[in-house]
Amino acid sequence: MRFCTSPAAPVSGARSRLEGPSTRIDHPHRAAFRDSTTGARQKSVGSGSAVIGRREIIAEFLGTALLLACGLSAAIFNFSSGSPLLTLVPNDYIRRFLSVLLFSASATVIIYSPLGRISGGHINPAVTLAFFRLGKLTTKAAVAYIVAQFAGAVAGTAAVRFVWGARASNVRLGATLPGHAGIWVALGIETLATFLFMSLILTFIIRPRIAHFTAAAGGLFGIFLAFFSFPYSGASLNPARSFGPALLEELWATLWIYFVGPSIGAVAAATLFRNRIIPCGKLFHDSSYTCNFENCLYVANVASREASRPSGRDGRPRRGAQ
């Protein structure tokens, strides 16, 4: 079964490559990518009737809340004036590395957790905007996800303030603020860093052999990006991550940077990949969890295999049929 067709796509050359005797589909989901060599744009062939529901939205809310709770706690522990780590690790660069390491590790764990497997593990409005640009979310679903992410960020930040108390106030709840280079440099850094981050995510997602390592690769690359962007912009790459502390600390003057920069960067990366086949809107697709994203090729692939199984006398697929 072909999952993507286009009137303008070259048929003869692509067919010989895809259906010749040397073709090997040795990955359980590789069949869902068969038309990736044609360059044809993805069509609505997946879970057309699927709807993002309350379960996914709650998972996204909880995932973002956990990200802020863990990530901001790491920042407070590394930089608060009352933290023992200031004495144990006096080097500012090492503590910065530890902070971004724990933040990125938290995001990676959440994506691979049941919460991430349910919702797709976006936990970032910029990521949701990118998948909306790629047609993996309806307008209603994208809005619901973004609202859940911002609400989760506020809940996670409030929990951090409650737990850490005065120590959290010492570092303004880990708020992201522009560095000495100014707001325009901060805006440019946030835009570029998010563009590079989202480009790497999509580069992994479109390749079936490495798609399951998307979150891990994003986490490692996120450490690099955050470490070097920290002095210039505070290393946000996530509007929700900046919104939570800004709301509770009433830091409105430069919040727009962390809305505009990551959003532009993520959408620009999605536009770069708009003619590539994006199999799913999840950062980690687990077939044991329901997927309600638009045009999920994993779902379409499973459905086509089930439909093509030879039937027994009672009309049901034979057990063990390949």
From TrEMBL:
Compartments (UniProt record): Cell membrane
Residue segments, region Disordered: 1-27
Entry keyword annotation includes Lyase: no
Residue ranges of the TM segments: 57-77, 97-115, 142-164, 184-206, 213-232, 252-273
Entries under InterPro entries matching the protein: Aquaporin-like (IPR023271), Aquaporin_transptr (IPR034294), MIP (IPR000425), MIP_CS (IPR022357)
One GO cellular component term: plasma membrane
Keywords: Cell membrane, Membrane, Transmembrane, Transmembrane helix, Transport
GO molecular function per UniProt: water channel activity
Entry membrane topology: Multi-pass membrane protein
PROSITE patterns, alphabetized: MIP
Family, as annotated: Belongs to the MIP/aquaporin (TC 1.A.8) family.
Protein name: Aquaporin family protein
Species in which this protein is naturally found: Actinacidiphila cocklensis
